Amino acid sequence: MAKAEILDVMSSAKLFLGLLAAVEEGVADLLYESGPLSVEQLAARTGTLPAPLRSLLRALDSAGFVAEGPDGYVLTEAGRRLSAFHPRSLNHLLRLEAWGAREHVSLPGLQAALRGRQVPTELPEPLIPVLASAVEVGGAVPALLISRRPELRGVRHLVDVGAGSGQYAVALCRAHPELRVTALDREPMLTHAGDRVARHTELRDRIQVVRWDLHTDPLPVRGDAVLVSHLLHLLDAPERLDLLARIADGLEPGGLLLVHDFLGPRLDSGVIIDWMARGACFDLDAAELIADAESCGFTPVRTERLPGAGSSLVVARRR
Ligand SMILES: C[S@@+](CC[C@H](N)C(=O)[O-])C[C@H]1O[C@@H](n2cnc3c(N)ncnc32)[C@H](O)[C@@H]1O
Fold it and tell me: Which of 26, 189, 196, 251 has CB atoms 3.0–4.6 Å from 166's, for a disulfide?
């Protein structure tokens, strides 16, 4: 990488922390709801000091996320997505990033990962509603796209492994009137999925949410298809193979496997650093994932690129 690019990266890394501070201290939400606000008003309402807060706002101004007018600061169009109140908010994702930056996506975290530290796949309980909201925003488009894949025609019972907020289950059942979905996850995420399903009264009988542990449990039901969306990246290589083998055990020959995850070639560097810092080191291209699936009893059907940070869909069938 050339010298100028290194300097750019140094600056963006610090600006990113500035964005996290604005989100975590509630500055973005206050400006969204009641802007324009002066530095003094914002400082009083967030319990911060005016001098460092002014510096933070100037940094965000210089990057185009806020603008200073005669009555104080406002969020720009780009800055509005920092607030949890924006319809396509990135606030929840940034709050997860803030947790990551405190826990492991940091210099000490990366150095610990290089010496073998692994972060548990389970987020702390207070962050589960934040994760549920973040996956809802991030998964809205892929859930619709996946629900329209031709291989799903004729599938009667799909098992959604690590189902998150349940939005894939809802999208799939809406697209396929004959389909039933069993959505597997841990508590308390399962309660979020259950609440979401309950809001769709017409689908209540077709979606069942079941408590399940990613690290140990076999699939509790036999479906004719399994969806694994944005779950494998939480696991290191031996656990990934173990899960794929448990999924293969839960499918009859010909059963469908859909894996949706961050898959190269050319994965975003931030994504690679993230999974490396977790200790999972999920840094695969689609061909490597297919080789894993083949070793666990699947035959590849096709791979498709989906929108969003290098996400792909791998379609395979149980041999
Ligand atoms: C990144 S989210 C993906 C959710 C959903 N499949 C999607 O694509 O939006 C990862 C999911 O793994 C679940 N998970 C993490 N550790 C788990 C465990 N030990 N047992 C079961 N589920 C787990 C989380 O609760 C979360 O719903």
Answer: 196
Instruction: Give distance in angstroms: CA of 80 to centre of ligand 1.
Output: 28
Distance from the alpha carbon of residue 15 to the mean position of ligand 1, in angstroms? 29
- Report residue 220 as tokens: 């509790």
Query: What is the domain range of residue 49?
Result: 3-109
Residue 265: the pLDDT is 83
**With a 6 A CB cut-off, is 229 part of the ligand 1 pocket?**
yes
Can you tell me which atom of ligand 1 is nearest the CA of 213? 20
Residues 117, 150: Cα–Cα separation, whole Å:
41
pTM higher than 0.85: yes
Domain contains 118 = no
- The CA distance from 207 to 14, in Å, is 44
pLDDT band at 98 (very low <50, low <70, confident <90, very high): very high
What distance in Å separates the CA atoms of residue 119 and residue 13, rounded to the nearest whole number?
A: 22
pLDDT tens digits along 17-74? 999 999 999 999 999 999 899 999 999 999 999 999 999 999 999 999 999 999 999 9
Q: Are strands 72-75 and 66-69 parallel, antiparallel or unpaired?
A: antiparallel
DSSP secondary structure letters along 37-76: B-HHHHHHHHT--HHHHHHHHHHHHHTTSEEEETTEEEE-
State which ligand 1 atom lies nearest to the alpha carbon of 217: 20
- Please give the tally of structural domains in the chain: 2
How far is ligand 1, taken at its centre, from the CA of residue 164, in Å?
A: 5
Residue 308: per-residue pLDDT: 66
